[in-house]
Specification:
The protein is α/β, with parallel strands linked by helices. Helices cover 49% and strands 8% of the residues. It has helices at residues 22-31, 48-58, 60-77, 86-103, 141-156, 167-172, 187-193, 197-211, 233-251, 269-280, 301-307, 312-324, 348-354, 357-365, 376-386, 388-414, 420-423; strands spanning 36-39, 106-115, 132-138, 164-165, 177-180, 215-219, 255-257.
Length: 426
Amino acid sequence: MQDFVHLHVHTQYSLLDGQASISRLVDKAMKDGMKGIAITDHGNMFGIKEFYNYVNKKNSGPRGEIKDLKKRIAGIENGEIECEDKEAELADCRTKMAEAEAKLFKPIIGCEMYVARRTMEKKEGKHDQSGWHLIVLAKNEKGYHNLIKLVSRAWTKGYYMRPRTDRNELEKYHEGLIVCSACLGGEIPKKITADSLDEAEEAIQWYKNLFGEDYYLELQRHKATVPRANHETYPLQQKVNAKLLEYAKKYDIKVICTNDVHFVDEENAEAHDRLICLSTGKDLDDPKRMLYTKQEWMKTKAEMNQLFEDVPEALINTLEILDKVEYYSIDHAPIMPTFAIPEDFGTEEEYRKKYTEKDLFDEFTQDENGQVVLDEAAANAKIKRLGGYDKLYRIKLEADYLAKLTFDGAKRLYGDPLSEEVWACP
């Protein structure tokens, strides 16, 4: 069986559309032996932090093993740890570390964006509402930051029924991103189903020229198997897939297969169906209401292999995308406002002349009595987390000014000089 990862997944943060919790999606993927998963909610990144944190929690065991093994390897190499056969012990540690690294589950941060049919500035009726779907995945930290910019600007600058981006924005912020052609709502599938094949090829060439080997054509097969479901989707997907495979060869573009995941297990289809009724304001028994194919669960590797056994490269290429995506942190120190401090109190420049980096190191890594409370590694990690020495000068200036304001206020309340009792207050 060919390995596979899901790259088109909607969580409950695709509001009134996705019916899958992040924890259940990750748990099912890990139980099935998948090495990662992407989440690609409609137009937003609301679930990213929960996703990142949950995967980090699940990865804590293997990461702990890796940390311990790295420490042991360093100890053996520098002679702190003695062993009879140094090379054999190092080889064993490296083997175990590779095994631990193989257990890591990779979170792929993405979004199914809406691309304006013209430009995001144009908001002139139905033609400009919503937009073509596009799967956008962050390959690295730079890509993550660019994806944030694209999605944020789609809401603040491009919103018109939906948060929309456009080609100009994609050109500006394309670095570090992987892009897939999406479902039947994507630009290329839409133009294929409309028999606008010249326009479809123009779009393919545009994306290929911009994203190069990080652009993929996306195959889907949602064949409805129950009466009360959308039976029109699958024939359209077949028509689109045939042309996508043809264009893939013509333009040397790789294909991937996805399942447009909106719920976790097959038995959740009916609950999802009722969610769509809420979303669209329709009664359950309305014969004209919107229906999904009810194939939109997170299929297992075996189920995806069965669906795409005739196109194995589409399964394989999902692993290629997984391998392209780097591990990176999305954690960030709190972004605080910059408060104006009177120059007669002090400036950053004056503080840089007055205090050395050693002074700052001691102040931020020792207690109020000058006692060392952190080892050197932990101390350096804290300084890095705070933003480095450049940031520490500003932090110290603001902290000293805040202390001044505090004592000025205390003196107004309790008198000057302050009594020992006031000074002793925690």
